[in-house]
Amino acid sequence: MTAVLQAQGLGKKYGRRWALTDCTLDIPSGHVVGLVGPNGAGKTTLLNLASGQLAPSAGSITVLGGRPGAVPAQLAKVGFVAQDTPTYAGLSVADHLKLGARLNPGWDDALARDRIERLGLDPARKAGRLSGGQRAQLALTIGIAKRPELLILDEPVAALDPLARREFMQGLLEAVAEHRLSVVLSSHLVSDLERACDYLVVLVESRVRVAGEVEELLATHHRLTGPRRDPGRLPADQHVVSASHTDRQSTFIIRTDAPIHDPAWTVSQIGLEDLVLAYMDRPADNGRRPTLEVQR
Ligand SMILES: Nc1ncnc2c1ncn2[C@@H]1O[C@H](COP(=O)(O)OP(=O)(O)OP(=O)(O)O)[C@@H](O)[C@H]1O
């Protein structure tokens, strides 16, 4: 199966500053991939590299087996909904669909019209007069009606209220089920991704901290709580992701494929949010700790 996104030592710098460093990923197709990280982590940079809007400063990236944005056939395979789901304020909903039809060879007009009708959007209404949620749905409609193999969305729900957020994510998941799309979606809110994603990439301070199928990540990460212990005394096959201690007690989030036999530990499962926070909590090279917004 062709990988949806492969990156090898990928990096991008703006001036002297690296926005993405040494990024190596191999994401199989058929997933809804959540790209999560705090503000400034490099999410937009990675997505812009994947959609061909930026060129790498180091390493390489292929998307669906081709170089991003290289040829029209490659452009047709990838849909992109940019941050803040931009639309043209002076154009009507119907104008947006006409533009979509003109610019995209694989345009599915019936799908676009049907979706607009189901959403209850007036085709004559100017995009500038739509609510944020309606504008996001219009942008999503255009992205889906292009009938891409991969849809990339950069923080599409960041500006939406919780209800509009849920409706947007529902619409996206329906499209995934109906049209067998692969999706890469960025957010700095774990809760947006928790319901939708089956593959996770955590990006912090321009580096990939962890990537993999959500099910596998949740099955191999555990919380250990027990008497205070130095992390260096844990078995070699238990990779410590995060550690916290009180005078008498230690709590570790570890990654391991092996069973945990030590009777000193209380072992508990962790959720996606705990997993993301553990990777974000891991001190970066410069010792600073990034913050993640967690909303329910
Ligand atoms: N055009 C640019 N010129 C210079 N620096 C940039 C540019 N775009 C991004 N950066 C810097 O690169 C880093 C990564 O930015 P990027 O927008 O990729 O992060 P992000 O994870 O998408 O953040 P956010 O969640 O806030 O959208 C940041 O430090 C940012 O300031």
Provide a descriptive summary of the structure in words:
This protein is of the alpha/beta class and 296 residues long. It contains nine helices and 13 strands. The chain has two domains: 3-213, Rossmann fold; 215-281, no CATH class. It has helices at 43-50, 72-77, 93-103, 109-119, 132-145, 162-179, 190-194, 214-220, 272-281; strands at 3-14, 17-28, 32-36, 58-63, 78-81, 150-154, 182-187, 199-204, 207-213, 221-227, 239-245, 249-255, 266-269. Helix 4 runs antiparallel to helix 5 and helix 5 runs parallel beside helix 6. The longest helix is centred in the middle third of the chain and has 18 residues, at 162-179. Adenosine-5'-triphosphate binds at residues 14, 19, 37, 39-45, 155, 188.
